[in-house]
């Protein structure tokens, strides 16, 4: 059975070592789920954090509150990152607030399952690609003038970019675009010593899952993730060490790669 959605208590025992001291990070989709967990972990590692979010002011405030309780600094800005102007604003907001930018985590996501391709409207297709693939590019483009040697770009894709998903055709496609752009950007930016990597999670229990799959499967809380070898979904806090690893300044010879955090659901990459 799937556990309850992410709670800040899951990171209370996180052991930080100051890996990101002096760094400034943007984490999109930072008001809940994976993004919230990453923002908290980065703050515990010493980074100042700016989160981008869409309409979930309560979740954004909660993230900032938790980071403050751990002695960290965080800011938040609302905006639809599927629109390039809002990505420009988020990057400039980070520069205005903290004076620099070292890490960009493109984590914002959207999915809406459909049991047949015939039900995927033009509007849904565009929205899915805007929030996943377009926003990743817009954020990277906006950030690049501010990124220096040693900067890190980290993109959250999905296992579905590699294995596909019969009910998430547009979402799998958008994540596939993220994977291809991550590898291409890595090739372009490696000589500037800016690393571009990503994480492709498997089934992770976040608020997005019941919100999007509940209409198809009322028992999603019981069934989600049971088909992977681990027999359960992952929790957001179980991914954060991978995000810290990819942001680590000492991780200097890895770029264009994806880490597969999926409970043992192995696939060819």
Automatic annotation (TrEMBL):
Keywords on record: Oxidoreductase
InterPro entries: NAD(P)-bd_dom_sf, SDR_fam
GO molecular function (one): oxidoreductase activity, acting on CH-OH group of donors
Record has Oxidoreductase as a keyword: yes
One Gene Ontology biological process: bile acid metabolic process
Segments forming a coiled coil: none
Highest taxon above the source species: Bacteria
Pfam families: adh_short_C2
Gene3D superfamilies reported in the protein's UniProt record: NAD(P)-binding Rossmann-like Domain
Similarity field: Belongs to the short-chain dehydrogenases/reductases (SDR) family.
Name used for this protein in its record: NAD(P)-dependent oxidoreductase
């Amino acid at each position: 059975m799937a556990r309850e959605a992410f709670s800040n208590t899951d990171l209370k025992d996180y052991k930080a070592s100051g890996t990101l001291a002096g760094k400034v990070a943007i984490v999109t989709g930072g008001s809940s789920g994976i993004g919230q967990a990453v923002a908290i972990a980065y703050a515990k590692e010493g980074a100042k954090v700016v989160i981008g979010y869409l309409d979930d002011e309560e979740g954004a405030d909660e993230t900032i509150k938790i980071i403050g309780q751990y002695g960290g600094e965080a800011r938040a800005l609302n905006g639809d990152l599927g629109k390039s102007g809002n990505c420009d604003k988020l990057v400039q907001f980070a520069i205005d607030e903290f004076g620099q930018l070292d890490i960009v985590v493109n984590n914002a996501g959207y999915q809406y399952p459909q049991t047949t391709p015939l039900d995927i409207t033009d509007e849904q297709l565009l929205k899915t690609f805007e929030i996943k693939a377009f926003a990743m590019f817009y954020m990277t483009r906006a950030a690049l003038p501010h990124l220096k040697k040693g900067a890190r770009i980290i993109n959250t894709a999905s296992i579905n970019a590699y294995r596909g998903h019969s009910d998430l055709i547009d979402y799998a496609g958008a994540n596939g675009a993220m994977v291809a752009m991550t590898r291409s950007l890595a090739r372009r930016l490696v000589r500037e010593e800016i690393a571009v990597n990503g994480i492709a999670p498997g089934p992770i229990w976040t608020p997005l899952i019941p919100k999007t799959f509940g209409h198809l499967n009322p028992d999603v809380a019981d069934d989600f993730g049971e088909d992977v070898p681990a027999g359960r979904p992952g929790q957001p806090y179980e991914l954060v060490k991978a995000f810290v690893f990819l942001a680590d300044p000492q991780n200097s010879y890895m770029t264009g790669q994806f880490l597969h955090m999926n409970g043992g659901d192995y696939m060819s990459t």
